[in-house]
Amino acid sequence: xxxxxxxxxxxxxxxxxxxxxxxxxxxxxxxxxxxxxxxxxxxxxxxxxxx
Length: 51
Hints:
Layout: E1 8-13, E2 19-24, E3 29-35, E4 46-48
Antiparallel strand pairs: 1-2, 2-3, 3-4
């Protein structure tokens, strides 16, 4: 389970469909949620949201 979320704005997938991303509007971050759900969410890395 992801923690530290503030304002969930949605989810997205990598072009090849292998990785899921969570978008948090308030923190302006995109969180990598693992590849094909084989990695636990906490193994992903936060990335700044590009504007």
